[in-house]
Design a protein that fits this description.
412 residues, alpha/beta, Carbamate kinase, VC0802-like, 2 domains, eight-stranded mixed beta sheet, 36% helix, binds aspartic acid, binds magnesium ion
Length: 412
């Protein structure tokens, strides 16, 4: 007998029909003799509706009160799902975050889980009931209601799975798994059977639509096997876990991309200690996140310095640069907010040379100019003009044969 944590997202519980369907899915697992702890989101659109209500009254809404408001969405679905289970003859019991005692810090609207008291859950499980816990919410030491940030039900589920040492945490959603790339860009994108935590984090730009990134970090830290699958269609979904020895590995698992990039360049700054900090310090102070950073070698005591930021922060970053870099005596500042970042991701590339050159060669073959490059152990990223996004993704998908699974690639 195994213990599973199931999490159902907003679309999966988007109507009473869907909720009854979820009940059937849970009953299937119970019938096989397994224990199930369920975490649910609010019904589809509900959290947005509540945020909008709050903003009609107060802008920005008081964070403590906003959390009291937002936590009601999940309270609706836990009760309805328990009723659906009972109606079908199965004993179930719902708990809010406070009732289970999902203890968090007091960072309202983005609280972090500190501890989970599993006693009550274990008692209810041994009484033979299905447990349904409200996702996305917790309670502080002082008894204030908190929420965990948008998409936070995933993190509730993983945290419960870790605390209960569940055999697997299944995240039911409206897509049937994690894909090699976005199928809207490359229709031949393929669902992956497995992916590692590290790869999933690097695929954030694709994966974050499927899973809250914090939940993946959490799962990695506590080694919780996570499976993403659809509540609408049958299938195994994608298993996110650690790399297993002897596991058949693809060199590349997927292609991630990020459309929201902008780059800024400072030309001709004096090449001396402290320059990087002088340029990036004020950017960090303004809470602007910097992604890639490139500094050129300086043949003549002057250097060029380029970095990328989120497109929304482009203007703000440019204004800051204008101020700091004129003071520093830089020659010129330039920028471009029509760029995208494309990344090849795969733990398999760790042990294989030549992936980068194959990537650059195939982009060159399409006449795509690479503007920046950065690499890590399991990722190679390039920045290109935004108009090349589709072409670049499709080209790389083809060249690295991502539409085929490992076995057929190996025999090539
Ligand atoms: N209902 C919350 C949201 O929409 C939490 C979740 O669904 O994971 O962000
Ligand atoms: Mg979600």
């Amino acid at each position: 007998m195994a213990l599973y944590v199931h999490k159902y997202g907003g679309t999966s519980v988007g109507s009473t029909e869907r909720i009854k369907h979820v009940a059937d899915n849970i009953i299937n697992v119970r019938e096989k003799g397994h224990d199930v702890v369920v975490v649910v989101s609010a019904m589809r659109g509900e959290t947005n509706r509540l945020v909008a209500l709050a903003r009609e009254i107060q802008e920005p809404p008081n964070p403590r009160e906003l959390d009291v408001l937002l936590s009601t969405g999940e309270q609706v679905t836990i009760a309805l799902l328990c009723m659906a289970l009972e109606q079908k003859g199965y004993a179930a019991c719902s708990y809010t975050g406070a009732q289970v005692r999902i203890l968090t810090d007091d960072a309202f609207t983005k609280a972090r889980i500190l501890d989970i008291d599993t006693d009550r859950i274990k008692d209810t499980l041994s009484a033979g009931k299905v447990i349904v816990v409200a996702g996305f919410q917790g309670i502080t030491e002082n008894g204030d209601i908190t929420t965990l940030g948008r998409g936070g039900s995933d993190t509730t589920a993983v945290a419960l799975a870790a605390a209960l040492k569940a055999d697997e945490c299944l995240i039911y959603t409206d897509v049937d798994g994690v894909y090699t790339t976005d199928p809207r860009i490359e229709p031949r994108a393929r669902r992956l059977n497995r992916i590692t935590f590290e790869e999933m984090l690097e695929m954030a730009s694709l994966g974050s639509k499927v899973l809250q990134i914090r939940s993946v970090e959490f799962a990695g830290k506590y080694n919780v096997s996570l499976r993403v699958l659809s509540s609408f269609t049958e299938g195994e979904g994608t298993l996110i876990s650690y790399e297993e020895a002897g596991m058949e590995k693809a060199l590349i698992s997927g292609i991630a991309f990020n459309r929201d990039e902008a780059k800024l360049t400072v030309l001709g700054v004096p090449d001396r200690p402290g320059i990087a900090h002088k340029i990036l310090g004020p950017i960090a102070d303004a809470n602007i996140e910097v992604d890639m950073i490139v500094q050129n070698i300086a043949p003549d005591a002057k250097t060029d310095f380029t970095f990328t930021v989120h497109r929304n922060d482009y203007k703000k970053a440019m204004d800051i640069l204008q101020r700091t870099c004129t003071e520093m005596g830089a020659r010129e500042i330039s920028g471009d907010d029509k760029i995208v970042k494309i990344s090849l991701v795969g733990v398999g590339m760790r042990s294989h040379a030549g992936i980068a050159s194959k990537m650059f060669e195939s982009l060159a073959g399409e006449g795509i100019n690479i503007r920046m490059i950065s690499t890590s152990e399991i990722k190679i990223s390039v920045v290109v003009d935004e108009r090349y996004l589709e072409l670049a993704v499709r080209t790389l998908h083809e060249v690295f044969k991502l539409d085929q699974d490992v076995q057929s690639k190996e025999s090539n």
